[in-house]
Known about the structure:
Layout: H1 3-25, H2 31-51, H3 62-65, H4 75-88, H5 95-98, H6 100-113, H7 117-165, H8 175-200, H9 207-226, H10 249-263, H11 273-280, H12 284-295, H13 299-317, H14 323-330, H15 335-346, H16 350-365
Amino acid sequence: MTFLPSGIVAAAVLQSWVLAGMLVLHAPNTAANRTLAGTLLVTGGVLITYSLGWTGRAEVSPWLAFLPVNLSLALGPLVYAYVVGLTSGAPPRQLSLHLAPAGAQLLYLLVLSLSTDPLRHVWKEEVHDDWVKPAIEGAVLLSMLAYGIASLRLLRRYRSWLSRERSDADQFAAHWVGHVVLALLVTLAILAALRLYTWWVGELETGPLFLWLAGWGAWFGVEGWRHAFRRFPSMLPAHAVVAVTSNDWAASGKEWRDRIEAGGWWRQPSLTLADTARRLGTNTAYLSRALNEGLGLNFNELVNAMRAAEAARLIDTSAGGDLLDIAYEVGFSSKATFNRAFRARHGCSPSAYRARLRSEKIDAIE
């Protein structure tokens, strides 16, 4: 009965390792892709004990218990390193320290895997199962929780930075990464619940958990590969606080807004705050403060509002035409961003806006 799930897990292990190899060999040699490859290798290693025959209910053999590929302590740091690499273009500072617990786990498994069978058996029965295994499991849960929360906080800061700096922020928001990390935290909750169950009640079939982890790894790997060749903007340090307090930020914001609108720069899909500041003859700190304090908008909101206004004008003046063509013409780079910005500006979707205009024209004729 365990052949089917163990076969699925084995297929997931193979897929993870194939994707890891493709990322290393074919994708750009970025910090994000290297750490994603490492994450997939570790995920496959965690899963391999099940695919080799352990169902969770039967007693695991010593050689399988000490197989030096089950480096569960590396999973949390590598997921975090991937998010750091994606948002900054570089690995986390002192990555080796983040991975030090996993290195100690690897050394522990290597020493025992190279020991004699009797020694492995005695160590497992008298020391590992009662002391080392619970300690490792607790450390894995804490590690996944800490690095998962850190990853979500970093993604939130990155999206906030994108909104301040780029008109195409939605293209790099990496929502799928947030979903993957949230799923990892769900896995953490399931692991904690299962461990409590086995402590107080007894052993149980862990096949569904391994299937869930296999699905998570496949999801992470495929999505990571889909985005492996996209160059994400690197998050820069926050602008220095502008010390000038006598500026009329509302007047500056209105002036610069009018110049941006008149110049038509908002039509450029990848327009950035830095490019706009250079054209206006100012710096990013002044421009950002004028928009935020003077107009109550960040850069992304300002530019997309201009695009939405022009899109509405084109919808009103054109006899027909595809709405997506209009979106691209005014500078939007995706349908989702177009719909979201248009709704924020006009209170309805572009299709509903067009339908309302047509209805009003028919009523006027009648």
